[in-house]
Design brief:
The structure is a homodimer. By secondary structure, chain A is α/β, with parallel strands linked by helices. The first copy, chain A, has ten helices and 13 strands. In chain A, α3 packs across α10 and α8 crosses α9. Chain A is globular, with a radius of gyration of 21 Å. In chain A, about 55% of the residues are buried.
Chain lengths: ~325, ~325
């Protein structure tokens, strides 16, 4: 038997046909026809599913379920409350797709879907309680609790990036001050590094690399130079790590998970990131006895996480 | 059929025999024979269970399960890693009680047990995702997630009181700075109020009430005077509320529960507490659309929560 996973984004719909072991056998992607509205997007998803079945030379009956990860909030039947990038509000996505396709359909927020992918094929395999934190432009997250995807009362991915952990010198886009995202996103790292470069009190190869064009600064450059011990890069990364460790410590104190996996663009800093966090997070963890508090790992699945997680949702839901 | 619930504390063991609806039919309590060690405490629990069965005139077979709430950490089979007040480390409580009593035995941390009680007979009845926060000398908590008691990777109640939410002018007992507990416990409220009284810049009836004996100050006095608009009491309660709202906002952003229930001594401030929090917490909640973010309520069960939750564990586990 087979599963289909759909990663529905604001610009692209990616789809994959997987076996029950979670291996992707066929993949396709199309532009999201946002301007064709809800009905147009539903039809495009159905076409993409048909194409995958055809590519694999399968009977429709061999597909046990279609999972869809959405950039928005929905209930467990797949009723979408809101998906800003698609201009959707209160649309019955699950119901409509079931009607058109005649297959079991499961729908979840894309952050939760990424956590499901990590829990089935990646860094959180066989984990009962695990948290995926994505460190990119913002900070997001998905939760696996008691062996199941957890999406709270509104079917949203965890907004753990908006956990307040201190005071910061600028406000978050959400209006609050002190959100984790304003300390530990790529955006925050770049912003703070720029302020250090402007101060001019520190040495850094960054000035040379950027040739005074601060707009070219990105998180990768900062992490790469921090690895070499560059003064400004190290100062900025240390601050990033300190606050990320507080955020992770808070999650550990609240949920005591087995694993926290770090994904998103910043996680490309790799073992340097993990080792730096490991060295810092113990300071903030209340319960230090017994089994080691929590493993911190890199997420393993990159671009395919959306397809894999969406396909594997069916297995999780039928349990 | 009947259930027995045991609330095992460092000074007292309380036990109750309940019907399947969670009503307490008989109650007894004895001193905890801490100095008799693990074996002595197990025997005392077994005697207390026998006494309850006898009081009710029941056959042993009519008791479906015995639940025990412990002041410590354990795994799901009831192996206790640590219970500081009982001087226990790595003892097979569940196994031993099953041997002595010949009945199904369930064991959980006492904070989780209190949340189970609220979820079966109190403020979180029929709630799928709910959080109990206890505001007392410290700040503790118990979680009900996806309709089940959640106790993480170490069988502990949630250490949500050690979530870091800002910077404070004194360190927490745990060694960190900025723990929720250092802003929003009875201890923190009293400490901050004392510092305001010492500053001498503000008016307050508290000075008169205390007759210069600051040691008599307690959280109830402060809340009572805040209700009347007293200057110092209001200033202290506002700060307490602000940080408690940040902590609650963080939990909502992370877990998006249906209900947060407030228990513990400070919750006796009643509707004044709830209304103050309600007015503040919206500022810190990321997702404000759709269903209302989260209900905030007073916990309903007081001293009996330990017995009720322990007895009801059986029902939850057999689900």
């Amino acid at each position: 038997m087979y599963r289909i996973g759909i990663d529905l984004g604001g610009t692209e719909i990616k789809g994959g046909l997987l076996n029950e072991e979670g291996e992707i056998l066929h993949k396709v992607s199309v532009t999201t026809p946002v301007t064709d509205g809800f009905e147009g997007v539903c039809k495009r998803i159905a076409e993409l599913v048909d194409e995958l079945i055809k590519m694999a030379g399968l009977q429709r009956e061999s597909v046990k379920s279609v999972g869809v990860g959405i950039p928005g909030l929905c209930d467990e039947r797949g009723f979408v409350y809101i998906a800003v990038n698609l201009y959707w509000e209160n649309v019955p996505l699950g119901e409509r797709l079931r009607q058109i396709m005649g297959l079991p359909v499961y729908i979840e927020n894309d952050a939760t879907v990424a956590a499901i992918a990590e829990a089935t094929k990646g860094s959180m395999k066989e984990v009962i309680n695990g948290v995926l934190i994505t460190l990119g432009t913002g900070v997001g997250g998905g939760l696996i609790l008691q062996g199941r995807a957890y999406s709270g009362n509104h079917g949203l991915g965890s907004e753990l990036g908006h956990m307040i952990i201190g005071e910061n010198d600028y406000n978050c886009n959400c209006g609050s001050n002190g959100c984790l995202e304003t300390f530990a996103s790529a955006t925050a790292l770049v912003k703070y590094t720029k302020s250090l470069l402007k101060e001019g009190n520190f040495n850094s190869k960054l000035r040379h690399q950027l040739k005074d064009n601060l707009e070219d600064l990105n998180a990768k450059m900062i992490f790469d130079l921090a690895k070499e011990g560059d003064e400004i890069a190290t100062k900025a990364v240390n601050r990033f790590i300190k606050y990320l460790a507080i955020g992770i410590g808070n999650i550990i104190n609240l949920l005591d998970p087995e694993i926290i996996a770090l994904g998103g663009g910043v996680s490309k800093a790799g073992s340097f990131l993990i080792e730096s966090i490991e060295a810092e997070v113990g300071k903030y963890v209340f319960f230090k006895k017994g089994k080691r508090h929590c493993k911190i790992r890199l997420a393993e699945l990159e671009n395919d996480a959306g397809i894999i997680g969406a396909a594997m949702m069916g297995i999780k839901r039928e349990d």
